[in-house]
Amino acid sequence: MTPTSPPPLETDADTHLTPEMLAELERKYDPETAFRATGPGLGRVISFLLVSMAAYQFYAAGFGLIREQLHRGIYLAFVLGLVFLLFSWRRTDHTDVAPPAWYRISGVNILDIVFAVLAVTAALYLPLLPPEIVAERVGNPSGFDVFMGTALLILTLEATRRSVGITLPAIAGLFILFAIFGPAMPGPLKHGGTSWLGLINHLYMTNQGIYGVAIGVMAKYVFLFIVFGVLATRIGLGQLFIDLAMLIAGRYAGGPAKVAIFSSAFMGTISGSSIANTVTTGSLTIPAMKRTGYPAHFAGAVEATSSTGGQITPPIMGAAAFIMVEYLEIPLRDVLAAALFPALLHYFGIFIMVHLEAKKLGLRGLRADELPRAWRVVREGWLSVIPLVLLVYLILSGRTPDFAAVYGIIACVVVGVLNKVNRLTLPDLWDALATGAKNTLAVGAAAAAVGVVVGVVTLTGVGFRLGFVVVQTANDLGGFFSSLWAFDYFSIEQWALFFSLLLIAIACILMGAGIPTTATYIILVSVAAPALAMLQVQPLVAHFFVFYYGVLADITPPVALAAYAAAGIAGSNPFKTGNTAFRLGIAKALVPFVFVYSPSLLLVANGFSWDMFAITLVGAMLGIGTIGAAFSGFLLAPLSMVQRVWIGLVALLFIAPGLSSMAAGAVLMAPVLVLQWRDRARLRTA
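The structure corresponding to this sequence follows.
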């Protein structure tokens, strides 16, 4: 019997997209890259400012001794000033320079230039004052201090709206209203409130607000790692990753989809952006998947789901990883170690589902003439690996992240000069530095806006209040379920933990649908950390739980931006692509629950043991593989609906950490395996 023929493609031909079309696609779905076009005169000025920003950050991290408050102020001034020059009042569908008018200079509204100058002035005003004068004014700011603080607050929210979207500044605005109208709040949210002067004093005059940890981490670490990723890609590391992925997985059943997984995993080591990874690797893998028979929506979903793994893949994870370093006061290598196996489980889950889909549809791999030559790939690309190896070595040896990033950047430049295949010229270096700086603007503005939210949390104590509400709600639900005879096997405390995790996960996904992962993480961890601490969950585990569900929002409808970008390349229905991407990424939705109940999976969590780690890892792999079969409808042969539901429930026993639950799962799985062996034998002889 021949394999089932593949379903018709959703488009009549492969999608052929030029680099300009890919850039426009990324701009459409990623507001952080929706830069407006400017005239050549102002364009050169902006390019100079971007490179100056990169040069300053490099100097400050590698050689300078700059006071922390001043360093944060300079970074914030660069960010806000450039945001108003590069992002227009409203996003437009064209990238042409705005037509000449008396109120525009090189396509930029004069009012935007005024905003840029005022934002730079307000951002630098306080940091440039002598520290002893600032210390005297904390608690009693002058009228001019309040004016500058108000200007910076308003301009920060507007810059964030332009570069990220309306959701984050709207949330920040609600928190500001909450701070001022505290006495009118209901129940446990009621507090004493504050005046506008008190609010500006806290958000502007101290390091608890706009100049807080978030903007500090962006200035100290994240900027450098983004520049490193741009340079590493420029010297050929990105292409090397794609070629290696094709050599590793391209020849096997459904090869292009497996290439998408491996290439996205490799790209995730140097880029923490889901949408950028989707566009970069998807331009090659999605058309190849369609040519071998995958439906267009499935091809786009595979690429989107794989690309979201970039933010959880060491060594260059999303900016949230560096925030975690500061919050938890642990070395970056510990965060990277904790992220390693959950990231591998994410890719393993996608791989299983892709493989089963390929077997079900009878799809081929790539032919020998469609694969690159192994010796040529190694010969032309081996030099580009050196900067990444050096970066990882320095981090693992205990060096600070900024030290590792500085020398990684230097290594990129040296390799780029020496490499004949991907030679890095001075214009290329200039463009790479400008691009890297430009790519940090939106996340920098978002960090400043998040500082407003965090400032209100520290001023009012709302984090503990909301945490109490979450735990109380979970306890009420736990009490109800534990009173039912069918569920009384678990205690109220166990039910309370489960429902707390569920409520926090839902909140992360909903909020992550409208704001960047880093902002979601920072805001919700202020609620989740106190709530989960009440339930005896370790801080590292709580932070990773929130982080992972924030990342999941990129492939969760109705606002699955990575999936929508992939749909644009595939020519498929965006919502259908998003639903399929969420199904493929179901492993990522389960893994956080696994490491909450068995922290050994994070390697560096308290109470780690190799025995528990091995049991948890094997169980998680079995559970993820079983769930993959249930969703795909195929294991060794097509599965009936009853079998799919049955093994879907059995998968939960595998995932639940413990030998007894795994043994129970194996016993319940055995009848389905016997039936599958019989059905496969029948298909072979038919």
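The chain has a mean pLDDT of 84.
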